[in-house]
Amino acid sequence: MKPTLFVLAAGMGSRYGGLKQLDGLGPNGETIMDYSIYDAIRAGFGKVVFVIRHVFEKEFCEKVLSKYEGLIPVEVVFQEVENIPEGYSYDTNREKPWGTNHAVLMGMEVIKEPFAVINSDDFYGAESFKVLADYLNSVEGKKNDYCMIGYRVENTLSESGVVNRGVCSTDGNGFLSSIIECEKIEKHGGSILYKDAHGVQQEIPEGTHVSMNMWGFTPDYFDYSLSMFKTFLSENALKPKSEFYIPTVVNDLIQSNKATVKVLDTPSKWFGVTYAEDRTLVVIRINELIKKGVYPTKLWQNKQV
Questions:
Q1: Nearest-angstrom CA–CA distance, 233 and 242
Q2: What is the model's pTM?
Q3: Which of helix, strand or coil describes residue 260?
Q4: Domains of the chain, earliest start first
């Protein structure tokens, strides 16, 4: 069975403004998501599942889903604040859902095979999808054997401002041992710097792997997530801004020796629209890839990949 691509598309892009998932950046209005789906199909993924919000369902289906008819099977699931296990309550002042791992949980009923998780508004690169698909094919039928695409930190920076990244530590066999969130990362005078908890700048060596939220899991991950989400709600349900993140669950599973996460290196350069000013650069980079022959000018021409 081919792996599934699970696309997190429920966020609204608070820094960028508007539905950046639907922003046409390619020469024929292609979105970053379109390039991800194109790369995933070429890499051997067999299905795409999107998690979105009901509030933009109509626009999403009209502008996005119609493109993929006849190319790859697609399903849509929804992430809303009220999607919590029976018997739990929450602060009614809460406006946003519960974070990235809550979004992952929304796929529990429709995904029964190894699956990848990506953000809808990040450009990951064709090599990353191939590496990820190959790994997921190798763990078909297994449990507790996960992976993460590790981007080299220098390939993930924005020219428009500072970024936050999950900096990864690995053991001698290339398995993830921890992820630490580092804030306000930027290139300065030839060095890559971030500010620690005390506001002091520290250096991150080039080649250090960071997480760009590109994961590979087997379906047992849903069971762990549900159990941990219940614990999370018991402790945080009345905190209107608390969030249940993928790295939180992954770190817990690693520290408790319940699962392993292989960090898979990629030479791909990440790019995305973190800031509105990034948009122009993303358009330029996509056009450069088209000139190199990585992508056709019109991505879905004749419904072929």
A1: 9
A2: 0.91
A3: strand
A4: 4-142+211-257+268-303 (3.90.550.10)
